[in-house]
Design brief:
The chain is α+β, with helices and mostly antiparallel strands. It contains 15 helices and 32 strands.
């Protein structure tokens, strides 16, 4: 009988034999882009005390899975741990699990990236410790059947899946509610899969251990393999004396109990049932990804994740076109792989600004590497960038990328390559609002209603309306989008024409408003401009108002908002990236500026983005037109 207990994402296994065999395991990952303090805390509260305690108990064997991100950090900051790990491996007390180096969301990856990430971690483990892993960990328990092929191709013989997969696939029960391990197949390739019993999560490791060591428990679980779930609250963040006490208790159990590793026993299974996994994975009755059990649904529920996924796909296509420089292509691929972290496709991960921004930084680095040095030409192209079934319009210059949707005729991604940064990367919780540049409100009347960064009530929001292609000129790098008059709409007689142009890394937008109705119209044009910096206070960004040749410092109030009158433009100095953004207009305008924050889990304000809402008053007689022009310049 074999029992596996994983201490972080803890799992417990059991199989028939003459003895009771425990397999203790530990899994841990910190995403790329997380703060150094997070790595250091995990190391000091979790990794180091456990490994140090284990070293003193040769009878206790364990299996470890650390992501490549975490291992690389430990190598650079605490190489002394590798000495202990090498000794543990040398006396066959420890076994490492493989997987993707950057803990990727495997189902979202092209086949080559799945294999590349797995081989990258395998190569790292073999180079550091001299041994290849035999099994692997599936990040976020996100499974699709076509993973079998790349796992087999990389020499992975076994993996683990939540019991709900087994339930949906009709797994074989060896006892009520407990499933046997199985084999699974795709395109003629086969691997072994262990079930993880998340339904037992409410039991603590100590209680479970006592149950199994009793004679009653030994009789109750005489099945092939039992895998028990996450006991994080009970076992992680222990001090070294607590781990020593835990291992001392294990060392004193009956001699018939032996501590082993999964690599020693998975090949001995015979007569396992074959299953194909297509069901919905659950964890203790809760869905794993947002509001749906399927990881791809998360891309729809959280558009920010969908945009990162779309950029991953687009960047991969660009890298595929790189010819003749294998070293450069490999470097670009590694940058791409950094952005495939599974934590980005969970609610806590996509809301984590440093991790999200690190993903965009890696993607922009990868795209920059894919460009032909010395021969890059500016371009305007139309293709389905965000994978919504309709074309978007993409300006690409030497330093700037600008992505525009016809739905709303606004910029939804603004990339600056010299300091790889997407100035429209922000997560806005519990709202349909997405960060944008030049999404427009038409506000009727000659007095303004209450204006808030979440929108303006009782007005016409053109950002939700579909514009028509009026002109698309690749040679002149010019895009013209038109919103025709709409009968029955508020200010429906107003025709809106927006002409975009990118020249020498300056984005220029010309507005033309036409009154096609019989009556004069008096209203405000309020474009919305969102910009995401590293932070909202003066340590991160400084703002200056522009009036003619004069610039004056702008200081936000305690309410994180301000109203300014008669401006020619606003300058933003991004201190962290050492970048200057200048928003200027051909007409003087009033504006509201908001530094948007939300309360984090600790109750402190967390910066999201800066919202600028210029106000331009328009008086249009019947049949007349009104024009204005904005420019957005980014330089470093």
């Amino acid at each position: 009988m074999i029992l596996v207990l994983l201490l972080c994402n803890q799992r417990e296994f059991e199989i028939m034999s003459g003895k009771v065999n425990f397999i203790l395991g530990f899994h841990s990952h910190i995403p790329n882009g997380a703060a150094e303090e997070e790595f250091e805390a995990l190391y000091n509260l979790n990794i180091r005390p456990l490994v140090s305690a284990l070293y003193q108990f040769p009878r206790i064997n364990m299996v470890f899975h650390y992501s490549g991100v975490l291992l690389h950090w430990v190598e650079r900051h605490h190489p002394e741990l590798f000495v202990l790990l090498e000794d543990l491996l040398g006396r066959r007390q420890v076994e490492f699990l493989g997987g993707g180096f950057y803990e990727p969301m495997m189902p979202f990856l092209p086949q080559a990236d799945k294999i590349g990430q797995i081989e990258m971690l395998t190569t790292y483990l073999r180079r550091q410790f001299g041994k290849r892993p035999l099994g692997c960990w599936i990040p976020a328990q996100a499974w699709e059947q076509n993973l079998v092929g790349p796992l087999d191709a990389c020499g992975m013989g076994y993996t683990f899946l939540d019991e709900s997969y087994f339930q949906a696939a009709g797994g074989r029960l060896w006892q009520e509610n407990y499933y046997e391990p199985c084999i699974t197949e795709d395109q003629g390739k086969i691997i072994t899969v262990f079930p993880v019993f998340s339904s037992l999560k409410e039991k603590t490791p100590t209680a479970m251990l006592e149950k199994f060591l009793s004679s009653e428990g030994m009789d109750a679980f005489k099945g092939p393999v039992t895998v028990f779930p996450d006991f994080t609250a009970s076992l992680i963040e222990k001090t070294e004396p607590e781990y020593l006490h835990f291992f001392e208790e294990l060392s004193g159990v009956d001699p018939q109990i032996e501590f082993t590793t999964p690599g020693r026993i998975y090949r001995n299974f015979r007569g396992l049932k074959k299953l194909y996994f297509t069901g919905s994975p659950l964890s203790s009755g809760k869905l794993l990804w947002g509001n749906n059990a399927f990881p791809r649904q998360f891309l729809i529920d959280y558009p920010e994740a969908g945009l990162i996924y779309a950029k991953m796909i687009h960047t991969r296509l660009l890298i595929n076109q790189l010819r003749g420089d294998k070293a450069r292509k490999l470097s670009a691929l590694e940058e791409l792989w950094k952005a495939q972290d599974s934590s980005l496709f969970s609610q806590p991960g996509i809301a984590n600004a440093p991790v999200r921004k690190a993903a965009y930084r890696a993607l922009l680095e990868a795209e920059n590497m894919s460009r032909n040095i010395g021969s890059f030409s500016s371009s305007l192209s139309a293709f389905d960038y965000d994978l919504d079934g309709e074309n978007e319009y993409v300006f690409k210059d030497e330093k700037l990328n600008c992505y525009i949707k016809t739905q709303g005729a606004y910029v939804f991604e603004l990339d600056y390559f010299p300091k790889p940064w997407n100035f429209l990367d922000a997560f806005i919780p519990e709202t349909r609002l997405r960060p944008c540049v030049f999404a427009d409100y038409l506000v009727p009347g000659e007095s303004l209603p209450d204006i808030h960064w979440q929108g303006i009530r009782g007005v016409r929001f053109c950002g939700e309306e579909r514009f028509q292609i009026h002109e698309f000129d690749r040679l002149r790098m010019e895009l013209c989008l038109r919103l025709p008059p709409k009968e029955g709409f508020l200010l429906g007689s107003i025709e809106v024409i927006k002409t975009w142009h990118l020249k020498q890394n300056i984005l220029i937008l010309k507005y033309e408003l036409k009154n096609n109705g019989p009556d004069s119209e008096h209203f405000y044009l309020v474009p919305r401009v969102d910009l995401s910096f590293s932070g909202g206070n003066e340590s991160f960004v400084r703002m200056l108002s522009i009036r003619g040749t004069t610039k004056e410092k702008i200081t936000l109030t305690e309410q994180k908002e301000i109203f300014l009158k008669e401006l020619g433009g606003i300058e933003f100095r991004d201190l962290k990236n050492e970048v200057v953004l200048s928003l200027e207009s051909s007409r003087y305008f009033d504006t509201r500026i908001f530094s948007v924050e939300k309360e984090n889990d600790d109750g402190f304000p967390e910066y999201l983005f800066t919202c600028i809402m210029p106000l331009l008053q328009v008086h249009l007689e019947s049949g007349k037109s009104w024009e204005s022009e904005f420019s957005l310049k980014i330089s470093s």
